[in-house]
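Key result, reporting period 2: structure in, sequence out.
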């Protein structure tokens, strides 16, 4: 039983030193956290979907359309 088969979470990749993280944690108001949690729990209406970008043309189609324009 060496613990080799135990699954652990990957390290949390926070790109700031401990002091900076602690300052941000201290500066956070509890009401901000509650508002964020409430916003995350609300379900978005189905009409508010993010519009998708138009499909990208393949290289062959792009070169053919460029030849027509000139």
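The corresponding designed sequence is given below.
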């Amino acid at each position: 039983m060496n613990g080799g088969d135990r699954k652990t979470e990957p390290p949390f990749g926070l790109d700031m030193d401990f002091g900076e993280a602690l300052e941000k944690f201290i500066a956070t108001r509890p009401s901000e956290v509650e508002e964020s949690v409430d916003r995350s729990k609300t379900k978005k209406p189905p009409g508010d979907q993010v519009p998708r970008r138009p499909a990208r043309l393949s290289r062959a189609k792009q070169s053919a359309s460029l030849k027509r324009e000139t």
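The chain has a mean pLDDT of 75. The chain is about 45% helix and 0% strand. This case is discussed further under Risks and Mitigation.
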